[in-house]
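Key result, reporting period 2: structure in, sequence out.
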């Protein structure tokens, strides 16, 4: 179900994404995930997410909470790394994390770009929207993923930062 009434498909960084999964886990929180035609939710390479939190929270509040989570993760995982950028009251958080096997090898390497923005929908609901792009590699693909990331680091960040977040009206 499209809780946010976002016209689709979403095109980001020359890739097309369709709504694949949505959730409304609490009265003021909505989450939607978008994948390319050949992607699978449990083992994707590229995903776009839109999340909305209705209420008094500000973009900086949510970004700070995520940064604190990343700092905690970094204590036990040296791969975790992040950069933060602010512009016009919006926060852009670019971060890398991994899931490792028991012997310390990387099983999933994930890069995310999160954009936090204050919003008011067509019905007057106020809150924060998160537009997120996620890219993953699995197992032995990690090295080539990192090489590609170094070469093209700014492309995804610029695409997420420049993306025009569509007007939405939340279905309750």
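The corresponding designed sequence is given below.
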């Amino acid at each position: 179900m499209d809780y946010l009434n976002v016209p689709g498909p979403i095109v980001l960084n020359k890739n097309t994404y369709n709504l694949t999964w949505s959730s409304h886990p609490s009265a003021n929180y909505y989450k939607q995930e978008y994948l390319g035609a050949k992607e699978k939710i449990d083992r994707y390479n590229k995903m776009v997410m839109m999340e909305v939190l209705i209420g008094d929270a500000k973009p900086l509040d949510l970004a700070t909470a995520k940064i604190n989570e990343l700092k905690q993760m970094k204590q036990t995982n040296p791969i975790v790394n992040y950069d933060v950028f602010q512009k016009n009251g919006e926060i852009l958080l670019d971060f890398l994390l991994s899931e490792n096997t028991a012997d310390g090898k990387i099983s999933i390497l994930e890069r995310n770009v999160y954009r936090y923005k204050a919003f008011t929908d067509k019905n007057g609901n106020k809150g924060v929207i998160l537009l997120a792009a996620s890219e993953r590699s699995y197992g032995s693909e990690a090295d080539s993923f990192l090489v590609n990331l170094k070469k093209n680091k700014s492309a995804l960040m610029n695409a997420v930062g420049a993306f025009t977040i569509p007007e939405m009206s939340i279905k309750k």
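The chain has one domain: 10-162. Helices lie at 59-74, 142-162. This case is discussed further under Risks and Mitigation.
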